[in-house]
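Anyone up for a design puzzle?
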């Protein structure tokens, strides 16, 4: 199955952007192979924002997920990577994108290795990256080239579920400001897993465990410090913004973050190291790590209602999330010289007409390339001269 679609009205659209801003970070072309419902597909959108409409199950979210794989991590569904490969296909999935960035044109690709290229040491569930034609061992470097942010219907439960989803959102927000943050989080978690495994095994060399704990403390404090810094700036940006979306106050509940507010980083680092040593027996029993920045929670409040986000209505929670995403996009634009690419899955459907109009206006003012989805064309009336429209149906993506 193959589908190639393109739009030829790029210039009209660019001049119609309300702010008159040129987008300097955008996916010009995206190609998919054996990616979920797509055997092969390619879409050319130029510098435009994109509206994807089509019935349930058409493949709209799949396309957004493919774009999310042009950033580090597990994509917007956090799927098991082997499940992304189209059922019954003989080769693993691959995505590639031609991008325009503030540093010029870049070619990014990602996917799983074919079975024949897997060595016994490589996990079949690890994705590799390609950057300007060269294979790279991991897509972590993509974070230095582009920022991608997303909102999905799954995130509607973010404030009422456990802290892990909020922590992931937090770390994505931080990475939009400190690009090395994702590497630091990964490094912390890798050492944490090694310490936990050795403690459970039972006959670990305690000198080695101490070394691992020192590294955990070093990476952990860097993670917590970046979170505090980015959140302070994000909160400030939100308080100053003239957005139609509610202002959120953001706070952190975590032992290292709490410590860093009042004590020097070196002290927090050595205290954390000592606490880890005290927890060894407990952690050996549970197979977990009792304390650390992997337990931090993001506390969100609706400022004008003076209410915790978890007590707000579903629509208010969605509006808070949109407000946070827009503020983060504004902040990241000031840091990188270009606003992030935004993937907004079924966001328009949840908003009343006024809010929807405000969202489209604010997106135009920020200047991000936005990929919007919905089942119904009529929701996007106001995007008609601000985006290119594609109809997704039966595994095909066709320009309208
Ligand atoms: N690995 C896979 N192989 C083949 N098809 C898959 C795979 N994973 C998911 N699909 C299918 O892809 C189709 C499109 O899914 P997608 O989530 O993109 O739809 P959608 O257009 O976003 O629909 P909705 O409006 O309901 O959100 C679904 O029918 C799903 O079953
Ligand atoms: Mg969908």
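Challenge accepted. My sequence:
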């Amino acid at each position: 199955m193959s589908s190639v679609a393109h739009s030829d009205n790029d210039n009209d659209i660019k001049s119609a952007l309300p702010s008159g801003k040129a987008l300097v970070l955008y996916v010009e072309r995206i190609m998919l192979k054996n990616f979920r419902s797509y055997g092969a597909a390619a879409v050319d959108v130029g510098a435009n924002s994109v509206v994807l409409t089509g019935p349930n199950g058409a493949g709209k979210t799949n396309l957004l997920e493919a774009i999310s794989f042009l950033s580090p991590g597990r994509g917007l569904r956090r799927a098991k990577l082997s499940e992304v490969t189209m059922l019954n296909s003989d080769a693993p999935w691959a995505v590639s994108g031609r991008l325009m960035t503030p540093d010029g044109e870049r070619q990014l690709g990602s996917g799983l290795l074919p079975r024949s290229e897997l060595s016994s040491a490589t996990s079949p569930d690890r994705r590799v990256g390609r950057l300007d034609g060269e294979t790279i061992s991991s897509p972590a470097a993509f974070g230095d080239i582009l920022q991608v942010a997303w909102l999905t219907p799954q995130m509607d439960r973010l404030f009422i579920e456990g802290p892990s989803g909020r922590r992931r959102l937090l770390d994505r927000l931080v990475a939009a400001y400190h690009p090395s943050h994702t590497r630091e989080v990964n490094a912390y978690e890798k050492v944490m897993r090694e310490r936990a495994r050795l403690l459970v095994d039972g006959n670990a060399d305690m000198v080695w465990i101490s070394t691992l704990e020192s590294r955990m403390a070093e990476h952990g404090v860097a993670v917590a410090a970046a979170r505090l810094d980015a959140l302070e700036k994000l909160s400030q940006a939100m308080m100053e913004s003239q957005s139609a979306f509610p202002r959120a106050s953001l706070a952190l509940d975590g032992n290292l973050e709490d410590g860093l507010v009042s004590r020097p980083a070196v002290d927090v680092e050595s205290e954390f190291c000592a606490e880890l040593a005290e927890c060894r027996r407990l952690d050996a029993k549970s197979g977990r790590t009792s304390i650390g920045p992997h337990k931090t929670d993001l506390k969100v409040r609706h400022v004008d209602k003076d209410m915790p986000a978890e007590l707000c209505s579903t629509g208010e929670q969605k509006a808070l999330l949109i407000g946070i995403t827009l503020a983060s996009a504004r902040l990241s634009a000031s840091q990188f010289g270009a606003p992030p690419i935004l993937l907004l899955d079924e966001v328009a459907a949840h908003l009343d007409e006024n809010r929807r109009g405000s969202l489209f206006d604010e997106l135009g003012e920020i200047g991000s390339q936005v990929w919007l989805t919905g089942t119904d064309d009529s929701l996007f009336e106001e995007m008609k001269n601000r985006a290119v429209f594609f109809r997704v149906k039966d595994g095909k993506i066709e320009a309208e």
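A detail worth pointing out: The pocket of magnesium ion (ligand 2) is lined by residues 60-61, 345 (CB under 6 Å).
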